[in-house]
């Protein structure tokens, strides 16, 4: 119960709309200690090609990642981030966590290509009948498609640790048996962005595009960027992790590399200790 309450507090901390907060609270409470049901004999493959003998085990913990076919699948996957998180878990907790990836693909060839490009060699289930979702009736919001489970497949925590550092810390604390407690509220400041939108125009799709935003600390306390999250894996944001002193600024450099020709409209979210955070940045253009 206390872990679900903590999840509620985390999600409320990144939402500023009362109606949205209420919906989040209701959803998380609905999933409190709920058992995730798995399909019978799901088939896992490496890179979508080689079938492997991989089963749902009775590990102390499981992390279940479900990706639906709505929108950009590769954007939702964030495979490189998951590779880093799995390596971190393995280095801290030997064989106590099983990762279960269930993907309902709209395009198997494209998904296999993404797995190959990112050299993702961990077993993945191409759930072509969307069986996992049909058995469990997941919420529509992507943020509620990742779960930390106990040995009995009961939900301990909800949220995607590769999108949110606080959720990531919660997962690690639970897995490592660390005390879960609410952190003291961090000192707040204010911040100003040079712009909220960036139009990259029209360009040849195979050329990387670079743009930037300027973030200025307009308050009287140091500004600390907790996390910058992109809605798409094809967008990378570079920035200094050092605290920004009052009246100082830093550049948020945005690199966009299209995977194929497309009109695009991507969102970048900046989480920081500013009272007016998080900041939503939009980048758009035509990769021809």
TrEMBL record:
Pfam families: DUF1573 (PF07610). InterPro entries: DUF1573, Ig-like_fold. It comes from the Bacteria. This is DUF1573 domain-containing protein. The lineage of its organism: Bacteria, Pseudomonadati, Bacteroidota, Bacteroidia, Bacteroidales.
